[in-house]
Amino acid sequence: MKDSDKKEEPLLYYKTKEDIEKYRKKPVELKLMWLEEQMEFFYYAMPEKAKIIRDKLKSGRYN
Known about the structure:
This protein has helices at 17-24, 28-45, 48-59. It is mostly helical. The chain starts with 16 loop residues before the first helix and ends with a helix.
């Protein structure tokens, strides 16, 4: 089977109401730490060109 013949399935992510409620009870500091770690991971995983554009947008000097 060729790559073009493959049917792409969307990436789905589900959480139960119980999972969401457990997360809501976690300390804010812990949730912020997780968020920071995720953002750091995404930054290191993104292509170099995307990093340059992101950094220019962040600094306000994108023309």
